[in-house]
Amino acid sequence: MLPSSSSRSLPQPGHRYDIAIVGAGLAGSELAWRLARERFDVLLVTQSLDSVGNLFHARVPRAFPIDSLFEHARLAAAPDDTNWALHREVKRILEGTSGIHLLQSCVTRLESGSPHVLHTWEGPTLKADVVVLAVGSFLSGRLSVGEFTEEAGRLSEIAYDFLWRDLAASGVAFAARRDMWSGEDGSVPYSVAYETFASSELSGFACTRFEGVYAVGRCRPGDASYERVLAEAAALAAQLGAREVTS
Description:
By secondary structure, the chain is α/β, with parallel strands linked by helices.
């Protein structure tokens, strides 16, 4: 796929992006950064700008791959190794990268076509030639602390229930998953139950039901370590960069 020749990072009503990424956690942020550096016109949409690049851990547990956005951010935040310091640097780098439109919005529905159309809770629609779902643990996410459960994918961040229901209504099959985290720095342990794409729905990163739609990161089956998620984002960036434009 070749980058668009149209104006980049100057979105307005009706703007058609090369690539729209839903979710700005580890996978989505890394992917957007890599694609923008290859001169793609990228929309990175998140439900909360206050949670861009957030980890599940309260502190950065170890170094990230040396060529990654997150390692650049970790080094910029040092010696502060808190999640919030990392978030601040990730967001700063993304906002300063030409070619990325970082948008706070809630995507509720995917209308597959040419272009793909993302419907939002707020009303405006978003258009892109390629869509990547990097929604992590937020498809029907349920966060539990003790006996209390809320509709959230992590740290009380709202779940993508509307989008999950829309995909399920389109026939997409999912597999249930639950991840658990021990308390850190005085915080209480918690768990998150959520849905991932079933293996039968994917061919590599591609969603087989929708042409030009991909999934990356924790919403895919398998190991969801930080290292694997960042490696997936790098691999998908290379794959999308090699795609040829079809007229």
